[in-house]
Amino acid sequence: MEEIVDKAYEDIKTMKVRGALDIAISAAETLKKVVFSDSEDTQELLQKLKSSGERLKSARPTAVSLPNAVDYILHLAGKNSGLGLKDFRGKLSESIDGFIEEQNQALKKIAEIGSHLVEDRDVILTHCNSDTVDMLLKRAWDDGKRFEVFCTETRPRYQGHITARELSSHGIPTTLVVDSAVHLLMKEMKVDKVVVGADTVYANGDMINKIGTSQIALCAKEMDVDFIVATESLKLCPQSLLGSKREIEYRDPSEIISPDKLPGVKILNPAFDITNADYITVFVTEFGVIPPEAVYHLLREKFGWELKL
Ligand code: RI2
User: CATH code for 2-106?
Assistant: First the structure.
């Protein structure tokens, strides 16, 4: 059992599994495996689920989808802890499947809703790689909209290459640019919309996404370009209602350059940044298109269970 959890932890930490939704689903699948690990009784299994959940949560600190998925599953486990081992396993594994299915449905719904925001001849800019954004743009294309997309390469890990490959192989005219081209591009290419994903969304409508996102939002504001965030409600941060700290992951400097090549130079590798709510036009969620001011209400509705903890 430990090996399964260790492997999932490593895969998330090293970004073999990446993307805010995918790491949440990977944690859920791992906990489902733990549900069927050797245990004497429900209480013992519950303890294993708790320790495995804590370990998985610690793999990456920024995307709240990961702790949200784990906390939700542990919440369900706690609710069913009065059941005998067999029933507990049956009930919890079924609920985990339900949770994963719900996330897949949310993705589809966001694509369906977000497709309406895309117009013919749009020039769209995206950053990093978001499954949610990819799905939305592919859906818009399948709905007959004809537009083009610019993808930033997204240093240092180049997730923009994944996006460019995905969209281009779907037939969408796609251009790759360096991250620092954004300001120029908005003017010269007349970008109509920025569409990005999210890792964490706060009660006040601020959001965290891949490093570089907030600079793009600043440019978009200056150029009067819509800044659209596609996010499942799983990425809303319930703890932000209680004033939690915002933690930005700093990754190994060697992702940027081997430190031997620059002796004496400190290298910083922040993986995410925070975009202020004032710079966000709308969020596209599975519950509809909402302004940043409405995030608070969605959070309260969705995470009632969490706030009771
Ligand atoms: P989806 C990613 O983080 C990016 O910041 C991306 O925008 C976000 O997760 C959301 O991804 P990383 O794992 O859930 O590449 O929309 O560090 O796929």
Answer: 1.20.120.420
